[in-house]
Design a protein that fits this description.
9-stranded antiparallel β-sheet; 462 residues; mainly beta; 3% helix; Tailspike Protein, Chain; Jelly Rolls
């Protein structure tokens, strides 16, 4: 049979006693009684083995110390679990003092122990003392939970006036998922449990008061998705890393964010408009048309106002394609894509400035001419506008004014170059790529070459 566990009374830390006059309390007595009783002595033991009982009353030795009645060695006071005592001291002059309701240190069954307070299921706190009814911790102590569901499953606290409770939660759904944090108990709140800033205990009926409210949002947290609406309130998510889905235009990012942690890192999974306003300031002003993979850094200014500090497009903002070597064409009037002169995909909803800077020379003889076309594989919202002019042997010549339309030049010689400079603006309806295409105007053995360093420049404007 296992030996019973004993717990040391805090009285044991006093290894020498003095009178009120500061004199060693030689011959003073210590009497230990059952707490709240009248003259009922309580047995204590000299050590944790519980084999030797202390004298009761105990007379202090010449050094004012409690001692083992058998060996005379200085002793402590140990009691069985659950024992609570009253301690009475009297010196040889008759002066007295007492300590009431003392339990063993760390005794889980002690009436004043932390363990008792933590485990108590009943409400005995209406007067401001005793256990906190129906809760797993006590006022001014910090309790840790694994995840939000554990918080909801715990009983709601019942606090006396002036008491507060704070809890630390390690994660939202799983430990260390970045959504945890510190919460405090608000006995009057009826806010909706949103799994982020508000948690409602399951024991609190619908509509009743009492909620755990977040002290502060985590600095970053796991990326969490939210569907776009006119007011996309990212502050309700409990994380500063947000994926915005959907295509509904956004004119506000809401007012639930905290200025204590105001930076939000946003990504977009589709095409929508960020509408510039006093509540949503954009770089340089004006609306932003997002595309899948775009990202932004937003700063919460308070009172529902935001500023987009930085906007990064997934696709290159400017693509510059440069012909690395001469591209000759002989006896071929069929337009073909020039190697290396095809852009990356242009996103739907984007408006682009397309610029061509080309130089054409004859290879042999004259009279062959040339054709140049900017071809787009997607579809446009309306026709591309703008245009360009080609210069044939120094003479200006009107060229085509639309994407997928051919610009032409007349005879070109070996010694005199033609230059084709064309600018277009276009708004993309369906994603596609741009390619620079080249051929002779009329098939001729007198070759034509598109010179190295010809450039195709595509710049996104929105």
């Amino acid at each position: 049979m296992a030996s019973p566990t004993l717990y040391m009374l805090p009285l044991s830390v006093l290894i020498q006693y003095f009178t009120n006059a500061g004199i060693v309390a030689q011959g003073a007595t210590i009497t230990i009684q059952v707490a709240g009783s009248v003259n009922t002595l309580q047995t204590t033991y000299v050590d944790s083995t519980g084999l030797v009982a202390n004298a009761n009353p105990m007379t202090l030795n010449g050094a004012g110390q409690p001692s083992d009645p058998n060996s005379g060695a200085v002793c402590a006071f140990w009691v069985l679990s659950g024992v609570t005592v009253d301690v009475y001291f009297q010196d040889t002059l008759g002066e007295t003092w007492s300590i009431k309701n003392m339990s063993g240190i760390n005794d889980p069954a002690g009436v004043a122990s932390l363990q008792t307070l933590l485990a108590s299921p009943a409400n005995s706190n209406s007067s401001g003392s005793g256990p906190v009814g129906g809760v797993d911790f006590v006022a001014n102590a910090l309790k840790s939970y694994d995840v939000f569901s554990d918080v909801r499953a715990a009983n709601a606290p019942v606090l006396a006036s002036g008491q507060t409770l704070t809890i630390s939660v390690q994660g939202g759904v799983t430990i260390n998922d970045g959504l945890g944090g510190d919460f405090y108990w608000n006995a009057t709140s009826t806010a909706t449990d949103n799994s982020t800033t508000v948690l409602k205990p399951n024991s609190v009926s619908s509509g009743a008061q009492g909620r755990w409210l977040r002290l502060y949002l985590p600095p970053f947290g796991a990326q969490t998705a939210i569907a776009s609406t006119t007011t996309t309130d990212v502050g309700t998510l409990g994380t500063n890393i947000v994926s915005i889905t959907g295509v509904t235009a956004i004119s506000s990012l809401g007012s639930s964010a905290s200025t204590a942690r105001p930076l939000y890192f946003l990504t977009f999974s589709g095409s929508l408009q960020l509408t510039e306003s006093s509540q949503l300031l954009t770089p340089g002003g004006g609306n932003i048309q997002t595309q899948a993979g775009d990202s932004a850094i937003a700063l919460y200014l308070g009172s529902g106002n935001w500023q987009i500090l930085f906007y990064q497009r997934a696709a290159q903002y400017t693509q510059v394609l440069v012909l690395s070597a001469d591209y000759p064409v002989v006896s071929n009037a069929t337009l073909a894509t020039v190697p290396g002169m095809t852009s990356a995909s242009l996103a739907a909803g984007g408006t682009y400035l397309v610029q061509v800077r080309a130089q054409i020379l004859g290879l042999t003889g004259t009279g062959q001419g040339w054709k140049l076309q900017v071809g787009f594989t997607g579809t446009l919202t309306g026709a591309a506008s703008g245009g360009g002019a080609s210069s044939s042997n120094g003479t200006g010549q009107v060229s085509a004014a639309a994407i997928n339309a051919t610009m032409t030049g007349a005879a070109v010689s070996i010694g005199t170059a033609d230059f084709c400079n064309a600018d277009f603006t276009m708004t993309v309806n369906a994603t596609g790529s741009i390619a620079l295409q080249f051929a002779q105007n009329a098939s001729s053995a007198n070759g034509t070459t598109l010179k190295a360093n010809t450039a195709l420049i595509i710049t996104r404007l929105n």
